[in-house]
Write a structure and sequence with these properties.
- The complex is a heterotrimer of chains A (about 325), B (about 525) and C (about 325).
- Chain A has one domain (about 5-320): ABC transporter involved in vitamin B12 uptake, BtuC.
- Helices cover about 75% and strands about 0% of the residues of chain A.
- Chain A has 13 helices and four strands.
- Chain A has helices spanning about 5-30, 35-60, 70-85, 90-110, 115-135, 150-155, 160-180, 180-190, 195-200, 205-230, 240-250, 265-285, 295-320; strands at about 140, 155, 160, 230-235.
- Chain A has a two-stranded antiparallel sheet with strand order 1-4. A two-stranded antiparallel ribbon of chain A has the order 2-3.
- In chain A, strand 2 (about 155) and strand 3 (about 160) form a beta hairpin.
- Chain B is α/β, with parallel strands linked by helices.
- In chain B, the strands form six sheets. In chain B, strands 6-9-10-3-11-12 form a six-stranded mixed sheet, sandwiched between helices.
- In chain B, a hairpin with a 2-residue loop joins strand 11 and strand 12 (about 220-225).
- In chain B, helix 8 packs across helix 18 (about 490-500).
- Chain C has one domain (about 45-330): ABC transporter involved in vitamin B12 uptake, BtuC, CATH 1.10.3470.
- Chain C has helices at about 5-10, 20-40, 50-75, 80-95, 105-135, 140-160, 170-175, 185-200, 205-215, 215-220, 225-250, 265-275, 285-305, 310-330, and strands at about 165, 255.
- A two-stranded antiparallel ribbon of chain C has the order 1-2.
- In chain C, helix 2 (about 20-40) runs antiparallel to helix 14 and helix 9 (about 205-215) crosses helix 11 (about 225-250).
- Classes of the chains: A mainly alpha (about 325), B alpha/beta (about 525), C mainly alpha (about 325).
- Chains in contact: A-B, A-C, B-C.
- Chains A and C meet through helix 5, helix 11 and helix 13 of A and helix 6, helix 12 and helix 14 of C.
Chain lengths: ~325, ~525, ~325
């Protein structure tokens, strides 16, 4: 096995191993780590990030980036809370619809106006945040207490919290889309070489557009969960979520230059970063040390650094052989 | 099928912004033949192929394919009608698996989802017909360039191609890999597939091609069976030089007025770098114009880059003025008194958003700045002087260089190095893409510089420039120096012979190939 | 492959009027002037020193950070970590000047605190540059690392506690007004002038533009591309450090959770609207100043005329997208 293959294996499966190791560590060290309460709390909360990271994963696989997801989620939560008074379905539809709208604009800016994804989604980040504040009149918007909308956040499907169930379904669909449809393979081909894809006769613009649309929709859905979990649409939430999602995607082994990635390991990346936080909380609870929550971001940053250095090596190998 | 041709292109014209790139070009390919398409850079090969594949729309002429007029408006349409192109830089997706690269665009499905097993089998089947066996699940980038080329061919065949166009497929392959590729090409032939083979390596043409079409200045000048044309004839047709006739003066060059040999300035011994440079040795003497002659892909530019410290050699040594010379960065070479005008003005020469003045003084910055502050007065003096001396046509030193014509851009880049007052100046295709007037000016300038003691190493694909301008010629062929000519020895005939056959060989193995 | 023929056609005739070029070059200035004229007519109390000061102080830190950002972007990079670096500098300085070690020598404490904070910020920038130059990691990702970890470091240093202080010697940089001009405005103007001068007049400035304009050509002309990249990220860190100090001085408090939050976006927006090419190679510090002022004045105008801040965000988004689109039209 040569070096490139080795690096690739670590890049793909390293995160799974790290995740397993972290869970084992928590199980060994803390009594209630795998308790039903702790597990449901962790997955319930991280479902939002998982949805956002899924959309981000697809965008990054095309070689783009979507900075707008955080404020899109905030907008989605406001829209969902307002619409929740017309029923649960309306609430979900409102949130997802608002997200799709932002994704639609992103797709147009990137594929039609040819504005680079970084700037296009930076401006929709601001616009979506503004729209959320306008809609909500700058305060949190309570959800309907009677429509059953809160079940989207707090309900249980058998033993699985609804948000987690939604995330799992989304990831399953995402995995099928990526691995078993030509659209999914085209996503990877675009990121691996946009010109080559064009010469291979693949529908580059259409698929790119779809990817931004989907990312917006998923961010909107994350907003729905945010509203249902917190009983209110929260226009000022979501700051920095996009960068957390990017970090999760990168830790999950997806190349930021596009062309290579996996849905499953992205989920592992989200869980890894999420559980890291949980472990730190437990550790503080034991009272041996007192690591503040701040350290989680330091550790996350270090994770990202390690992954990125590994990737740098991988891509250099790639450019050398090409 | 009319007159037995698979493809026939007749009277093709193509202009870009009014400038003709193709003039009444024609090409005829028979079923199951390997057809070589050769010509100098800018002869129109690429344009002709792009017209064929629908990348460019032709202005005039007709294309008949399988007996019917062909109207391809895009590479996809051409592909659908069975014409596949394999580009020089392989246009596949390196990060994706071999299977995806072969099957993307015509996936196999089962219950609406991709059927990976069937796709892997299909990929393996296609590759095995060339006796290539590999793990098709692995990413393409894991494999050698040659294998990647096989994959590209397999993709083409998978689209049931009748005609495969290969644009310089061997330029980055080693000898063994070339052998495998040729086996594949012969295999294609037996299966009745035609191949258009673009290459600059003459030996290869004789090895694998049946017929050849030679292009020059946008026209097809000759078509022949490979068995009926000699290498020398090929090269003369390509360069447009009739070897039997002595041509008149075609350039503004003249040989050095001063006879006698200067001191040796720069010596390179058995340089090797990458795939392109295998064994290059030369000596440059003070005040002479030395020239690398050779076909494309002979390793001339690559050698120059090594000398200038832009690439590192894998073997060999250099010395400059009797001292060992091993530049690790262009800065080292610049500090040692070298300058390098690159072949690719746009990608490696100009900084388009900078002004004429800023471009001209880019290398000079350390000398015209004091404590890191650019001395505007000195800069102005230098820039004014060179604008005047070289006759650079611009609205002023502040004009953006991108707004200048090619010839004037080139003069600015020349000035960038002349301002450094170098000992050795490397000029890679100094007159390419420049109008006739500016060309002559630059040629005269190069001569007067060398007369004043500057050592020039000039790489040129224009034979006239080499023959009329150079005091010494090193002929490179497939990464090796095969001949050194000086003074009266420099004739078109000898250069052509060395380029074609590696005559006057320094290396015995050359004759064996 | 570029055909020799088509490459000739891009030498445009200089005489014809290039609308997109004109707008891309002077659009920001025109917009700023129009805004001022509009406000003179429609906004009450616009032409007062008060208004000027409010706008200037609000835009100060953005301009300071955006100045460093302009240099980074000029090399074809980007720096997402500026906000976090501000937080680090903002957390470190009070830790030092409030510490009892200095035994009441306030001047020394403040001097050491400020120097250490700015040094730390510069080192953070150097780390970014090291990742970009040495490992060829895309700038977005390389600086994302400190974006995430940096704020954590700042929070960890202060245990996420709000550091409140009343140290006039330090707060002078945020609140002082020699000759009626806020010190932060003086710092801003000084930085802008120095950076603009450096970009235009020094060897380093040329290296920056050459690196961003055509890295391969720069390398072949002997420019130290790697060192240039290292330096611009270090400068960006330096500027962020100063901005961090100014922010906490104004607030009389340092909150690691809030200092510099979202600053990277404001700074990038100012650079983009100011007309600096986001792919590198062309940069204008003065443009960045104008860009920041324009964004600020748009916001002020909308607010002063009863439009909510949220709507101003949407307008800001449209301005950024339009400015970049305009640049693209010019290049195309």
């Amino acid at each position: 096995m040569n070096r490139a293959q080795y690096a690739r294996l670590v890049g793909t499966y390293g995160v799974l191993i790290a995740l397993a190791a972290l869970i084992l560590f928590g199980w060994w060290r803390y009594d209630n780590f795998l308790s039903a309460f702790n597990v449901t709390t962790v997955v319930r909360y991280n479902a939002m990030f998982a949805l956002i990271a899924l959309g981000m994963c697809f965008v990054i696989m095309t070689g783009g980036i979507d900075l707008s997801v955080g404020s899109t989620a905030a907008l989605g939560s406001v829209a969902a809370a307002m619409a929740s008074h017309y029923g649960m379905a309306a609430g979900i539809g409102g949130g997802v619809g608002a997200g799709l709208l932002v994704g639609f604009v992103n797709g147009l800016l990137v594929t039609r106006a040819n504005i680079m994804p970084f700037i296009a989604t930076l401006s929709t980040l601001l616009a979506a945040s503004g729209a959320a504040l306008l809609l909500s009149k700058q305060t949190s918007v309570p959800i309907s207490p009677t429509s059953g909308f809160m079940l989207v956040g707090h309900g249980m499907l058998w033993i699985i919290p609804v948000p987690a169930a939604i995330a799992i379904i989304a990831y399953l669909l995402g995995a099928i889309l990526l691995n078993y449809t030509s659209t999914g393979r085209t996503v990877l081909a675009i990121g691996g070489g946009e010109d080559a894809s064009r010469l291979m006769g693949l529908p580059v613009a259409r698929v790119t557009f779809l990817v931004y649309l989907a990312s917006g929709g998923l961010a909107g859905m994350a907003g729905v969960l945010l509203a249902a979990l917190g009983f209110a649409g929260q226009p000022t939430e979501g700051v920095g979520w996009e960068l957390f999602a990017i970090a999760a995607v990168v830790v999950g082994g997806t190349l930021l230059t596009g062309g290579s990635g996996s849905v499953l390991t992205t989920l592992a990346g989200v869980l890894l970063l999420g559980i890291l936080f949980n472990v730190l909380n437990f550790e503080n609870g034991k009272g041996w040390i007192s690591l503040s929550a701040a350290w989680q971001s330091v550790v996350r940053g270090l994770f990202l650094l390690a992954v990125v250095l590994l990737q740098a090596r991988l891509t250099r190998q790639h450019t050398r052989s090409a | 099928m009319i007159d037995g041709a698979l493809l026939s292109m007749r009277g093709i014209d193509k202009r870009f912004a009014g400038i003709p790139a193709l003039r009444q070009a024609s090409l005829e390919v028979r079923p199951g033949e390997v057809h070589a398409l050769i010509g100098q850079n800018g002869a129109g090969k690429s344009t002709l192929i792009k017209v064929l594949t629908g990348y460019h729309r032709r202005d005039a002429g007709e294309v008949t394919y399988l007996g019917r007029p062909l109207e391809a408006n895009s590479p996809q349409q051409a592909q659908a009608s069975g014409i596949s192109t394999i580009y020089q830089e392989i246009n596949l997706v390196p990060l994706r698996s071999v299977t995806e690269n072969i099957c993307l665009g015509r996936e196999k499905r089962r219950f609406g989802l991709l059927d990976w097993r069937a796709m892997h089998q299909e990929a393996e089947r296609l590759l095995s017909s060339f006796r290539v066996k590999l793990d098709v699940r692995r990413p393409l980038m894991d494999f050698s360039t040659a294998t990647q080329q096989m994959v590209a061919i397999a993709r083409a065949i998978g689209f049931s191609a009748r005609l495969v166009i290969m644009d310089e497929p061997t330029s980055s392959l080693d000898e063994q890999e070339v052998g495998v590729l040729f086996d594949v090409i012969r295999q294609l032939k037996t299966n009745g597939v035609s191949v258009i083979f673009v290459s600059h390596k003459l030996d290869e043409l004789y090895e694998v091609c049946d017929r050849v079409t030679i292009m020059r200045d946008g026209s097809t000048v000759c078509s022949a069976n490979m068995t009926e044309i000699t290498k020398l004839e090929l090269v003369s047709q390509m360069l447009g030089r009739d070897v039997s006739k002595v041509a008149g003066h075609a350039t503004a060059f003249s040989r050095s007025a001063t006879d006698g040999e200067g001191d040796v300035v720069l010596v390179a011994e058995s340089l090797a770098a990458g795939q392109a440079v295998r064994d290059v040795s030369f000596r440059l003497r003070r005040g002479e114009i030395a020239s690398f002659a050779g076909l494309l892909g002979a390793g001339r530019t690559e050698t120059a880059r090594v000398v200038f410290g832009a690439d590192r050699p894998r073997a060999g040594s250099m010395s400059l003025g009797a001292r060992p010379f091993a530049p690790a960065h262009p800065r080292d070479a610049i500090d040692a008194g070298l300058g390098f005008v690159t072949e690719d003005r746009k990608m490696e020469g100009i900084v388009p958003d900078m002004s004429v003045a800023e471009n001209m003084t880019l290398a000079l910055l350390p000398r015209i700045s004091r404590n890191g502050v650019v001395d505007e007065k000195r800069q102005r003096e230098v820039v004014k002087r060179f604008i005047k001396e070289l006759g650079i046509k611009c609205s002023g030193p502040a004009q953006k260089i991108r707004e200048l014509s090619g010839g004037n851009q080139q003069k600015v880049l020349l000035a960038r190095w002349l301002a450094m007052n170098p000992d050795v100046l490397i000029l890679d295709e100094p007159t390419r893409g420049i109008d006739v007037g500016a060309k002559g000016e630059i040629q005269r300038l190069i001569r007067s510089l060398s007369d004043s003691g500057l050592t020039v190493l000039m790489i040129s694909s224009e034979l006239e420039e080499v023959v009329e301008g150079a005091d010494r010629v090193f002929v490179l062929r497939e990464g090796r120096t095969v001949a050194e000519l000086s003074g009266e020895e420099i004739t078109e005939e000898r250069i052509l012979a060395a380029m074609a056959q590696g005559h006057v060989a320094h290396h015995d193995q050359e004759a064996a190939q | 492959m570029i055909d020799a023929a088509s490459s000739r056609s891009d030498s445009r005739p200089a005489a014809s009027f290039d609308l997109f070029g004109f707008l891309a070059r002077y659009g920001t200035l025109i917009a700023l002037l129009l805004l001022i004229v509009f406000n003179l007519f429609f906004t009450r109390n616009f032409a007062t020193l008060q208004t000027l000061n409010v706008n200037l102080t609000q835009v100060c830190t953005i301009v300071i950070v955006a100045t460093g950002m302009t240099l980074v972007i000029a090399t074809g990079g980007i720096d997402l970590s500026v906000g976090s670096i501000m937080a680090i500098a903002g957390a470190l300085a009070p830790l030092i000047f409030l510490s009892p070690v200095f035994g009441g020598n306030v001047a020394l404490a403040v001097a050491v605190g400020m120097a250490a904070a700015i040094l730390a910020a510069t080192l953070c920038g150097l780390f970014n540059g090291w990742l970009v130059a040495q490992f060829r990691i895309q700038p977005i990702v390389a600086t994302l690392i400190l974006f995430i970890a940096g704020r954590g470091i700042a929070q960890a240093m202060t245990n996420s506690n709000l550091q409140v202080f009343r140290v006039p010697e330090f707060q002078w940089i945020g609140l002082g007004r020699p000759l009626g001009i806020p010190v932060q405005v003086i710092i801003m103007v000084a930085l802008v002038i120095i950076a603009a001068w450096m970009l235009r007049r020094t060897r380093f400035g040329r290296s920056i533009l050459a690196t961003g304009g055509n890295e391969r050509a720069a390398e072949l002309a002997g420019i130290a591309v790697k060192r240039t990249k290292l330096a611009v990220y270090a400068i960006s860190g330096f500027c962020a450090g100063i901005a961090g100090l100014v922010v906490i001085a104004i607030n009389s408090a340092s909150d690691a959770n809030l200092v510099g939050l979202g600053m990277e976006l404001d700074a990038i927006a100012a650079v983009a609207v100011g007309g600096t090419l986001l792919v590198g190679g062309r940069a204008t510090i003065l443009g960045t100043l104008l860009g920041a002022l324009t964004i600020q004045l748009v916001r002020y105008t909308l607010l002063a005329n009863g439009v909510p801040d949220a709507a101003a965000l949407i307008v800001k988004a449209a301005i950024i997208a339009f400015a970049v689109w305009l640049q693209q039209q010019r290049r195309a």
